[in-house]
Structure formats: structure tokens, C-alpha cells
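Supplementary Methods. Inverse-folding protocol.

Structures were first reduced to a C-alpha cell string of length 421. This string, shown here, constituted the complete conditioning input.
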């Protein structure tokens, strides 16, 4: 195994980072005083990489592989997990698939092999296929009725061209035409190379790397397929009709990517924009003007692209006014923060990190995300130290570096904002 750090050259808090001989990367972090283990396995297998005509096959496969391993059926697999007091569930998205595991540390050496079997040796029984596909179709139908989900899908489709414009669950027509053999073909291409297993638990991280190696070391597969980067479309304005009396508006602009040294300063600035009760958008759009009942801002990452998304939900008749004020506040925000805003945003981010680091599921998810975003796991102390170093000048440099071009504007509601009476 290739270890990025050893016990002698890393701080006690820093995660342990190891690449197994089969190419699986294992990242383990200590959760003080915890008797539980949380693990998250992520691999590059989202809808972006699905074949034309089979978009959504990865989402079906993630559901299907939880329904039996090594020839056992779904009932037997569920019973095995239940006897160990463990949980296992999965998820699929545009760029990755994932399995999430939770158990007592004392049972980890028996639970992690079951998770490994689900990834590498699922039964994929014919009589479970329709049920697995049905779950994904139902989730797709539910998302179509949710204005927040619809807006998220619409802004992604407006931001990108090609495969990166796809939704996280696939396409209804493709899903209905999918066959069991086609999804089995997809599983044959899955590989530990490029996958990440993040583990958060009490005790020595070295122990959990050894358990992971014993559990997942037998998983073999072909070389990982490299997913193409996202192609950003030209700025545009799109309205999508959706029933009701509310309109959702979103502004999408370029942002700084994780590898940029100004990433942390940008994160602080985004919290000042919309991360606390006294943030800019909350104060101006909701509290002072009463224009929106919900506002939000975040940076979303996909295919090497970083985009700042700001959203507001408002009444259909006032959507034009809300959109204009949203854009005005974005322009004012890019002029810089006040000292009290900087201090408040840094405190909020630091608190979030500390709380998340004490949750097993949160810590495991963050470790996996860090490897995919930054190429390495980050320790909590490292992140907190970087936050404390952010200055007003750093924030100003970050805000000046992105968002200078015309944004993409996406709206969802009964009428377009410009058509409101």
C-alpha cells in the first residue's frame, strides 16, 4: 500500500491517506470518543458518463446492487446487515455514485466486507431489476414536482452543454427502455481505480485502513475512464413554466475553483452574502423589502467548473423586482465586505466545520469530497487555520477574480418576470 502520511510524520488530527494495490484510495480520520464507524465509498460513475440512450443506468445500478451480494437475495442481505446493527444505503449523481455505511466499530470487520461485496460482487438478480428501476423513476417523478429540484436541474442545463447538462437521475425514456443486461454491462466497467473510501471512526486510523484493505483489496476492475470536463455554455436567460403563485429565480456566475488559493476567501464571502440571518441577501430581499421568502447562495462544482449560484423564491408578480434587487446586491457584494461581516462569516464557517467534524457521516462525506475537489483530505485544524488567516484584502481579491461576465439567469414560475403585470 502507498501511504501519503505515516503516524510519525502527521499530526494526530490529520487524516491518513493510503492507496491500496488495486487503486482504491482509503482516507481515514479519527473521531475522538466515538464507538461508531461511518464510511463513504465514491466512484466516478454518474449520469455524465452514462452511454447515450442509457442515461440513468448508473442510478439504477446503485439501487440494484443494494439488493443482494454473492448470489444472496435482497432479504438475506438486509438480514445480514440487521444482525450486525449496520446500515447501508447508496446514492447517484451527475459525476459519482456512492455507498454509505454506518455501524459499531466492534462490527466493522464484518460490515465493511458486505459493503465491498455490494460494490464488487452484487447479485443483480433479474427479479430485483424492475424494483430498482422503479425507485429511480419514482424519484425522478418526485423531483419534477418539486420547484427547488426543477430549478436546480434547469440551471445546470443552462450552464453546460453536452453530457454535463444531464440530470442526476437520468432521463425518463432511457430509464424505461433500460434492460438488466445493459446495466450489468455498466457494472463490469466499474473499478476501484479512481474510487475513494473515506472512513471516520474512533481509535487509530491505521486500524481502519487495514480493515478497509482486507475488505476491499480483492475488488479488481479495468482502468478508470476519464470523464470529460464540463463545457460552459454562453450566458443566457431562460424561463421555465411551473404552476402555482410563486416564482423561483437564479443567477449563475463564474466562481473560483477549489485548487485556487483564493478558495477559502471566496467561501467566507459567500457566507457573508447568504449564510447567516444577517447576511446581505437575507437582510435586503427578505427583511427590509419583503421580496423573497427564501434566499440562498452557494458555489457548485462540476466537471472542473465552479459556479456561484444565487437563488430567491418570491411571488410571481414581484419576481422582476426581486431579480433586479438580487443582481444589484451581487454587484454591491463584489465591491467587498465590511469588517464585522468578515468576522461573522469566519465564525459561522468555523462553527460549521467543528460541528461537521464531530459527526461521523459528515466527516466521512467531507473527506471524500476533499479528495475529489482538492486531490487530498484536509484536517480540521488546517481548515480552521486557513479561515483565521483570511483578510478583507483576500476577500476583495477573490471577489474581483470571478463573476465579471454577464451571468446566466434562470427563472421558474407561472410567468416570466418580465411579463408580470
Amino acid at each position: 500500500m502507498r501511504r501519503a502520511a505515516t503516524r510519525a510524520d502527521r499530526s494526530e488530527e490529520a487524516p491518513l491517506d493510503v492507496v491500496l494495490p488495486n487503486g482504491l484510495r482509503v482516507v481515514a480520520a479519527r473521531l475522538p470518543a466515538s464507538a461508531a464507524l461511518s464510511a463513504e465509498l465514491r466512484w466516478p460513475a454518474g449520469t455524465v458518463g452514462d452511454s447515450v440512450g442509457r442515461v440513468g443506468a448508473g442510478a439504477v445500478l446503485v439501487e440494484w446492487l443494494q439488493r443482494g451480494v454473492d448470489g444472496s437475495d435482497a432479504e438475506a442481505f438486509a438480514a445480514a446487515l440487521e444482525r450486525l446493527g449496520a446500515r447501508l444505503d447508496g446514492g447517484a449523481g451527475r459525476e459519482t455514485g456512492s455507498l454509505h455505511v454506518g455501524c459499531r466499530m466492534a462490527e466493522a470487520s464484518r460490515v465493511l466486507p458486505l459493503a465491498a461485496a455490494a460494490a464488487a460482487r452484487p447479485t443483480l438478480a433479474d427479479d430485483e431489476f424492475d424494483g430498482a428501476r422503479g425507485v429511480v423513476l419514482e424519484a425522478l417523478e418526485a423531483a419534477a414536482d418539486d420547484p427547488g429540484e426543477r430549478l436546480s436541474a434547469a440551471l445546470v442545463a443552462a450552464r453546460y452543454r453536452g453530457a454535463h447538462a444531464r440530470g442526476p437521475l437520468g432521463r425518463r425514456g432511457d430509464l424505461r427502455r433500460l434492460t438488466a443486461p445493459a446495466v450489468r454491462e455498466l457494472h463490469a466497467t466499474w473499478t476501484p481505480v479512481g474510487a475513494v473510501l473515506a472512513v471516520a471512526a474512533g481509535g487509530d486510523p491505521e486500524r481502519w485502513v487495514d480493515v478497509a484493505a482486507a475488505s476491499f483489496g480483492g475488488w479488481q476492475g479495468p482502468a478508470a475512464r476519464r470523464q470529460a470536463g464540463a463545457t460552459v455554455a454562453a450566458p443566457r436567460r431562460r424561463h421555465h413554466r411551473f404552476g402555482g403563485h410563486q416564482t423561483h429565480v437564479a443567477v449563475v456566475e463564474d466562481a473560483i475553483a477549489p485548487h485556487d488559493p483564493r478558495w477559502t476567501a471566496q467561501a467566507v464571502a459567500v457566507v457573508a452574502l447568504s449564510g447567516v440571518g444577517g447576511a446581505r441577501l437575507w437582510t435586503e430581499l427578505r427583511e427590509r423589502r419583503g421580496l423573497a421568502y427564501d434566499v440562498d447562495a452557494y458555489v457548485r462544482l462540476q466537471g472542473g467548473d465552479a459556479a456561484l449560484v444565487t437563488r430567491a423564491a418570491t411571488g410571481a408578480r414581484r419576481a422582476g423586482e426581486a431579480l433586479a434587487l438580487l443582481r444589484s446586491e451581487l454587484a454591491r457584494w463584489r465591491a467587498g465586505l465590511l469588517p464585522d461581516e468578515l468576522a461573522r462569516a469566519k465564525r459561522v464557517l468555523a462553527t460549521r466545520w467543528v460541528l461537521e467534524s464531530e459527526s461521523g457521516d459528515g466527516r466521512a462525506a467531507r473527506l471524500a469530497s476533499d479528495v475529489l475537489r482538492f486531490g487530498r483530505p484536509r484536517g480540521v485544524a488546517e481548515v480552521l487555520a486557513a479561515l483565521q488567516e483570511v483578510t478583507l484584502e483576500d476577500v476583495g481579491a477573490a471577489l474581483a477574480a470571478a463573476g465579471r461576465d454577464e451571468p446566466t439567469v434562470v427563472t421558474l414560475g407561472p410567468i416570466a418576470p418580465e411579463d408580470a403585470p
